[in-house]
## 1
Amino acid sequence: MKIRDYPEGERGAFNPDALLSPTLPSRYYHDPAIYRRELRGIFHKSWCYVGHAGQLPEPGDYRVERVADQCIFLLRGEDSEIRAFFNVCQHRGHELLDGQGSCRKRIVCPYHAWSYSLDGRLIQAPHTEQLQGFDPADFALRPVRLANCAGLLFANLDNDAAEFAQEYPGLQETLSESLPTIDSFGTAFQFDYDIAANWKIVVDNFSEGYHIPVAHRKLTQVLDSGSGRCARQERRYAFFESRSKAGYEGLELEPGSPYRSWTLWPNTCMLSLPGCENLVVIRMAANGPDRCREHVDLLAANGEVTPTLEALKGLFADQFNSEDIAIVESVHRGLKSLAYDQGRYVVDQKDGWYSESGLHRFHRSILEALDE
Ligand code: FES
Ligand SMILES: [Fe+2]
């Protein structure tokens, strides 16, 4: 992307050098035309987290998921393979499945009962015997590419996108080295939040630690922020390692326990909180320019809820995530103010824990993705 293509705001053009750059102009957070470009340029062609393999234990189990405006479902086949398909019948477009459950041996459309095998072939279409030139093989479900990274499932709607492993090199290793029991992980808790904010504001907030000492008093009792460092920076993800303090009453920790986090392009953040092996996987599902749904999977060995995990869930769900939601909704309202268009990225050359350089990198990726 050439410098002259970076968008202008009232404080100047976005600059690829974070030390010089004003922030993303505020229209990027509420203009419906920019949102439509994000759908095409980002969500229809990136690898997006859609759930954990353990959420589909048996053949026939399915879950309906959304990737921004597109509805898909994940399904475990009779061969135990997990596949993904667009959730649309090839007859007249009715949605095939709803929510989650088991469709046993076949997927039957609730409108006119066209039936598909668990690997997506059309196997029954009532009263189609007399149709001319009708070949059921032409009406199979449209598959969606799916990657399994240490049990985490990522979908990509674009058949031409690069392989997951090529886009996120070493991610699986950072997970399995940090969490040796990850292969036994299951879902201990799941929760959802409907947030009145553009999805990028929520990702922005996860991408910087500058606000932590100010906005998260309880978290500051756990996180030794001086110990934070970026352990791996790739084009599509970053991996951070830090250490815990002794915690607080109700969550006592061995000081120096690992506290890790990952940010994954475009809309997933993961935390492994100190105290036990766990992974909090958070995805920001865009839902128009003004809303998003935050889905959280809290994963742990065998999905088992221990007292420590319960305390960590409280720290995340009742404390700092609620604090963050109030923050991002306030920022969303503020970004619509006539008195605000752009601020500055607060960065340092050492890329320290407090630096907003990850925020600047995220915005640069957004602008590159929109340069269709
Ligand atoms: S739309 Fe599915 S069978 Fe008619
Ligand atoms: Fe926060």
Note: The radius of gyration is 22 Å.
## 2
Amino acid sequence: MKQTNKQTKQKHNESQKRYYQKNKDKYKEFRKNFDFKKYYQEHKERIKEQSKNYKKSEFVKFKNKARNKARQIKIPKEQLCQICNKKLAVDRHHEDYNKPLKILFVCRSCNKLLDNLE
Ligand SMILES: [Zn+2]
């Protein structure tokens, strides 16, 4: 089966190449005339939005991964918030999502504060 896939792919590549060869001049002409700047200006919002969404989703995935890891660390009983030292810690806060196991035990209000600082 693998062989067939490879062959199909090769065939596909070849036909693409042939297509490109045949239309090479057209492509060149198109690229020469194509105004990327103008295209960007016209679609700026959409392009920005798309890259923003992409970055956001990657970051969210990254964050969730760290959070899932941190969830395995139990908050010690009677642990005071490591920020205000007043209330009991009920949340975990990451200082750096690159270090998923390095967390602070914080109370809810401090966690909110920290999240707003991000
Ligand atoms: Zn606190």
Note: The helical segments are 2-22, 24-33, 36-71, 108-117.
